[in-house]
């Protein structure tokens, strides 16, 4: 029995069904339940697999406005601005980035009025020098993950 690529195969199987039982994963991968359990525990301990959560279709529950917010921030204020954005429940992604802007945040909103209100409140912070907000017209691909390539 060879375990070559087992971790990658396990991750790919979990991407297909994050709720799969250890038994079904073992059957799919043709290894013992103990082997799957040990490898999965190692992947979790190494922070390769960081929890199991549902994929929520925000549009289906009324959050059908997605905004991309770009901010230029005073250098020393960057951590406080990103912390503030991260604390806002509707900001689903916050990045510190290189380029013309310092921060890019993605938010989900019920409507443009709610989006506008939250952005205006954010922009009262004097450490934000400039902002640019884009509203997503059509999400072509969103929250996608990819299968790991198996080595030969």
TrEMBL record:
Cellular component aspect of the GO annotation: cytosol
Keyword Transcription: yes
HTH asnC-type domain: residues covered: 3-64
One GO BP annotation of this record: response to amino acid
Superkingdom: Archaea
Recorded GO MF terms: sequence-specific DNA binding
Keywords for this protein: DNA-binding, Transcription, Transcription regulation
Keyword Protein biosynthesis listed: no
PANTHER family in the cross-refs: LEUCINE-RESPONSIVE REGULATORY PROTEIN (PTHR30154), TRANSCRIPTIONAL REGULATOR AZLB (PTHR30154:SF34)
Protein's name according to its UniProt entry: Transcriptional regulator
The organism of origin for this protein: Haloquadratum walsbyi J07HQW2
Organism ancestry: Archaea, Methanobacteriati, Methanobacteriota, Stenosarchaea group, Halobacteria
């Amino acid at each position: 029995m060879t375990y070559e690529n087992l971790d990658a195969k396990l991750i790919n199987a979990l991407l297909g069904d994050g709720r799969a039982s250890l038994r079904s994963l073992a059957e799919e991968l043709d290894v013992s339940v103990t082997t799957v359990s040990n490898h999965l525990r190692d992947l979790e301990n190494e922070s390769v697999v960081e929890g199991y959560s549902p994929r929520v279709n925000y549009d289906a529950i009324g959050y059908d406005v997605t905004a991309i917010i770009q901010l230029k921030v005073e250098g020393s204020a960057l951590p406080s601005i990103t912390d503030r954005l991260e604390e806002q429940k509707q900001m689903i992604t916050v990045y510190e980035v290189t380029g013309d802007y310092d921060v890019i945040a993605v938010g989900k909103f019920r409507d443009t009025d709610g989006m506008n209100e939250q952005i205006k409140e954010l922009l009262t912070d004097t450490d934000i020098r400039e902002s640019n907000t884009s509203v997503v017209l059509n999400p072509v691909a969103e929250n996608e993950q990819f299968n790991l390539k198996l080595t030969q």
